[in-house]
Design brief:
The protein has helices spanning about 5-15, 15-25, 40-50, 75-85, 95-105, 110-115, 145-150, 155-160, 160-175; strands spanning about 35, 60-65, 90-95, 125-130, 135-140, 150, 185. By secondary structure, the chain is of the alpha/beta class. The strands form two sheets. A five-stranded mixed beta sheet has the order 3-2-1-4-5. A two-stranded parallel sheet has the order 6-7. It is globular and about 40 Å long.
Length: about 190
Amino acid sequence: MIIKNERDVIKLVQEDHWMMDILLAAKALELPDWWICAGFVRNKIWDTLHHFSERTVLSDIDVIYFDHSLIDEKHEKKLEEKLKKTMPKIPWEVKNEARMHVMNDLSPYSSSVDAISKFPETVTALGLKLDKNNNLILAAPCGIQDVINLEVKPTPHFLSNKELLSIYRKRITQKNWKSIWNKIKIIYP
């Protein structure tokens, strides 16, 4: 399949029953400003562009949300447990982005999409969710051109700071994505 735009990405995910089941499970939590992000979206796109017949295993499924009213990490763990009861074989990870700026030593985020925009790589700064009618919504605050062109670059946020750029470089080395998806091009600014 050729992926040219956001509609193509949405169609690709809509046709993947496993991904849609995961999105429905996350939606059932009824969290404010929720998204499933990062590798969940990126891997699907890259696996498709590499013509893989099997899905690349994800180390976790990142469910994020934004709620100032309850910023206790214990609550996030309870939400993970709820998801594990629904789909026990999924490696769920739930984070409230209303508190994650503290963990990342940044100014407070204004929303989940704002937090996504500050992820290290543009190819990871992606999120999916279902609206009230189960229509699929894609958040791509840095666009989708890099992910569909197989180009790994730092987000503008990470480009803005030498310390963050060193974190980006370290992550790229640790992730070793090129060993899985050999067509990607990694940009080191």
